[in-house]
Amino acid sequence: MYKSFYGLKENPFNANPDPRYLYRTKKVEEALSGLIYGIQSRKGFITLTGEVGTGKTTLLNRVLASLATQRIKTAFLFNSRINTNQFFDLLLAEFEIPCSSNSKSQRLMQLNSWLLDRYRSGETVALIVDEAQNLTFPVLEEIRLLTNLETSTDKLLQIVLSGQPELEEKIKLPELRQLRQRIMLRCQTSPLSKEETAEYIQERLHIGGASGQAEPIFSLKAIEAIHLYSSGIARVINLLCEHSLVTGYAEHMRPIEVEVVEGVAREFQLDEVEPVAPAGGLQPRNDLYTSEAFIQNLGEALSRFRMGPRASVPGRERK
After folding, report:
1. Are residues 175 and 259 in the same domain?
2. 211 is in which domain, residue-wise?
């Protein structure tokens, strides 16, 4: 809609984690190098943590793109609200390992045999789990035990757990101390500084086709407002820029001024709610809702509820 007006070839602020748009700050370069090095050198356990919207999934997609050119087979699990049976189902499916048995021991034997075959052929195998802060303790324990699949010199499976700061807090719990002790590399993403926000916006505009234009698309004051309301969170920067471009196009405004950004921020209540978690709000709850039994039974309970007769609610009859 606004592309031709601003001289763009594509929408530069899409929410999709496109690795082409990975903005390489020093922190991102360190995380990218650490992840690739850790997998290539068979370090075993690696974590990637960062605030919501700071580009972890985009970074992981860049890692996957890099590994695809090497002798490295990968499995990427993006749904972390699973029980142990579902975890093994997804793991074997991602690696395309056939197994007709539902027995965990048979599945592990099949996986171990497959990993040994890959190792003998000189291949490295990596499992990447996104949104890992949602994994239950039983699933995290199963993932830890997978690091026992090894030779006398190397780990057969390299594991990357990526998640929000709650993942770090969860790993600190006494129940997960064995897992914590096996983490060999810790990588992080972080919000952008004021200067990095300006460079991030310009780089995405450049990749989107806005090159060699004399007149800027966003004024300096608008970019400052974008950083203020986003707190440097890349996903929120994209949101503000995308909707500001739409509004700017509707008003035939170039460059986009600060008033437009402020209007978008109010629309999404960014002037009222911080886009980052409050301090002290990251402690995971070690209660019923983290148990695997709750996860396993929730689907069955909902199914029974949907299949049962609908109860009438006073005052809510159809008219």
Report:
1. no
2. 3-14+192-267
